[in-house]
């Protein structure tokens, strides 16, 4: 992003006061040091023309506001005001109910838009190298589908085999715990406080009971139905992603057209920054999660963690969750490694503690801080709020949404506060 149109106020310049005219205030807001304008070279020709026209309209609007005086708001009809407010509340409740009914579709649209914004930077890179956008979209989307299909082709058989192995070996694993040295030592030290033998017998009885196995089979059947529904949802998201990627520029222009012409330039500035940040964030998170899963799989294979492939898939999806994903992955790997031996669990935990330090201080700053920069406390709050509202998808989009809110505060609200 570069600064264009208009001069910048120096640090020693006098800020406009309430007594100054509207044109001076608007010029200050437009040239504030925190304000970042859109880079014209990154915009397509139609959006560039719309942006220039909006800048001219903003200048005209400043001059017009400088000539006119603001009118005080006077309530002439309290009944009419109360009726209007009540009607607005009823409409808001109706819209909220409709959104609740369409929550699944909204999640599909949000996920598709999120993926499209992540693929758009790659399409733009191909455009800069002379490839037409439709062909670039075909190359990027086709490559994306091939990668997803290849990963599913590798992962699904591996997961199926390891789940089958887990079901077959579960009784033996539970029964073998009684002969593990670490279990014997734990029982000898704390057996007078906790009945470990009783807990182990309960586990053995549960695994050995045919009725429980039937319930587990029913759970597996329900899980299969859930997987089928997930694949259907994934196909819908994939189709929506293609549509969004192909029409992203026209969708943004349509959104800009809904804004008044004099205020359109500021909306374009913020929207272009947000879409660029989201695209970089998605790519960065996928790279970090993939690195975490691959290195973790290598470590688990070396130290002998059971079901390393299945656990690595879980690590990948957990690592997509901001900030706390690596911690959850550490807990998952350590618990699974405990079935092999306490030493294996300790090695896995130590590895992930070291990896989290490398990721936090080396990988994340190099990959993520160039696109989004959000304080850690706000990342935690945003992830918790997003996860509560929208589940995993909400946790994934929490950082871009938080960055967007901070961007609006820094570039719109704070400059206005400095004039008061």
TrEMBL record:
This protein's record includes keyword Transcription: no
TM regions (residue ranges): 81-99, 105-123, 135-160, 220-246, 294-321, 327-355, 392-413
Membrane topology value: Multi-pass membrane protein
Domain of life: Bacteria
InterPro entries associated with the record: AI-2E-like (IPR002549)
Cellular compartment(s): Cell membrane
Pfam families cross-referenced by the UniProt entry: AI-2E_transport
Keywords: Cell membrane, Membrane, Transmembrane, Transmembrane helix, Transport
Family membership: Belongs to the autoinducer-2 exporter (AI-2E) (TC 2.A.86) family.
PANTHER family: PERMEASE PERM-RELATED, TRANSMEMBRANE PROTEIN
Name recorded for this polypeptide: AI-2E family transporter
Source organism per UniProt: Leucobacter muris
